[in-house]
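Please, structure for the following, as tokens.
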Amino acid sequence: MKILDRWLELSARLARVGVWFGGLLVLASAFLVAFDVIVRKLFVITVGGADELSGYAFAIGTTWALAFTLLQRANVRVDALYIRLPAALCAVLDILALLALGFFIGLLTWQAWAVLQTSLAFDARATTPLQTPLWMPQTLWVAGLVLFAFTWVPLLLRALLALLSGDLATVRRLAGARTIEEDAAAEASHTAHLRARGADSAAGG
């Protein structure tokens, strides 16, 4: 149990780094595309490759955000019926949902690894002016999927142990769909944090 908890703590730290990394990539690609549009309009020139690089950034950023999304239970779930079911049945459904999600991402990771191996074997390059070696963005893309798997394993095992011990509250906390109250509390906490930072900045200024 303690090993799984420590594993989850490590996963949470890595997931937070991953989501920041992915977000920065997407933000950088947005700036690159905006810059390309501006110079093309004003000076009739282009930096070239902005669309290609933004595509890589989006794909990489998406996979690097998956682990954080999983831990925050931020994935979209249709819970119109779920919220009316008994807690024990909800816990079982939460485990089944985790298993289904892991199966899907596992297949995706397997296929992504095969794509990466093929690119390495044939030194595949993008059919674009940049001729980007495809193994470079694909390696980062696959790494994000591996991070998800690294996070999913302890989460599933910890939730299963909680279910077997009858700790339905822990199953809900780890794998259950977020409630409106939880979302509201999270937003309120975030708002309070931003206000505190703003007050500190004003005091420092």
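The two ends are 47 Å apart (CA to CA). DSSP finds six helices and no strands in the chain.
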